[in-house]
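Subgroup meeting minutes
Present: P.N., E.W., G.H.
Scribe: E.W.

1. P.N. recapped why we're keeping a running log of single-chain structure predictions: easier to compare across weeks, and new members can see raw inputs and outputs side by side.
2. G.H. added today's entry (96 aa).
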Amino acid sequence: MCRAIKTLHNFKPPATEAEIRASSLQFVRKLSGFARPAKANEIAFNRAVEQVARAAHELLDALVTTAPPRDREVEAAKARVRGAERFRLPGAKPAT
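Output recorded in log:
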């Protein structure tokens, strides 16, 4: 479940509201153990998502770095290669 949480710091363009919210939702899902909460827990669940998103915004706004911003396409390509290696069938030859 947490593999959906992506690094959001130091990208050009910066993380969007949707990306921050998606990461916050995944984090709260992992903590609570609920993919979708019951009606009785829905208010607390949604409040937690909003609070985590707010904290994430504050964190991302406060972080500083001297490293150049990372390119989203380059990072996505690296992730695809890692995924292909992770799920390669035993005995299969690596792609060249």
